[in-house]
Write a structure and sequence with these properties.
By secondary structure, this protein is an alpha/beta fold. Helices cover 33% and strands 22% of the residues.
């Protein structure tokens, strides 16, 4: 049987290099190769910037370019091409880490890449190092609980509109809205219609330089749209609820 290296999906958290876990630090210092998810156009990798202080000297870093669009995900071309690069490294054999913002199993390029890798190499050894999500860090920055007691929490994407949020608001006590920067005005209107206009918190560039934390739809509307942003809202229950 051909020996293979292990691939680690490593969550580097939302932005602050101090928010990596101890396990993530250990893995990054031990692996032979570090893969980064780079923007196809710019070649930049925020995950690499976050992890840079923790990479060992002389570590081999290989950027993998991805087109972060629905069309790019649907075609899967970049994921298959990059999966072939990763598989070649694992077959050396060498251990490798793939860096991803937040958590590897939550809205992450890693899951698409992993599916493509398993098509080529079904028995590839894989381990995942969870990371702190942007919404957990945003709640911490706002010093606001996401949920308490028997409250329910729903995480929705607004990348394709507000329908998912509308349904979530009818079922959950607390909501997190991801990928909604293009829908900011419509999302604010929906929160206001539910009596939550003053409860909404916008977090942008969470734990990174230029971090923004704003409460209330009036102030949120005054801000320019920011790609790395999310919304939090929680219905306040009475003391006997």
């Amino acid at each position: 049987m051909t020996q293979l290296g292990t691939l680690y999906g490593v969550g580097v958290g939302p932005g602050d290099p101090e928010l990596l876990t101890l396990k993530a630090l250990r893995v990054l210092r031990e692996v032979d190769v570090v893969f980064t998810s780079a923007q196809a156009k710019s070649g930049t990798s925020i995950a690499q910037e976050i992890a840079a202080p923790h990479l060992r000297d002389g570590a081999e870093v290989i950027p993998l370019a991805f087109d972060h669009t629905f069309e790019g995900v649907a075609s899967g071309a970049a994921h298959r091409e990059n999966a072939a690069v990763v598989v070649e490294v694992l077959r050396r054999p060498a251990t490798a880490a793939f860096l991803t913002l937040g958590d590897p199993m939550t809205y992450s390029t890693f899951t698409y890449l992993l599916s493509a890798i398993r098509e080529i190499l079904p028995d590839a050894p894989v381990a995942v190092v969870p990371g702190i999500t942007s919404f957990a860090a945003a709640a911490a920055a706002a010093v606001e609980p996401l949920a308490e007691g028997d409250e329910s929490l729903c995480i929705v994407s607004a990348a394709k509109g507000t329908d998912l949020l509308r349904r979530a608001l009818g079922a959950a006590d607390s909501v997190v809205v991801m990928k909604g920067f293009r829908q900011t005005a419509a999302l604010c209107e929906l929160f206001e219609s539910e009596g939550l206009g003053q409860q909404v918190i916008l977090s942008a560039r969470c734990s990174r330089p230029g971090e923004t934390l704003v409460r209330g739809t009036t102030r949120i509307r005054e801000l320019p749209r920011q790609y790395m942003s999310l919304l939090l809202a929680r219905r306040k229950r009475g003391p006997n609820c």
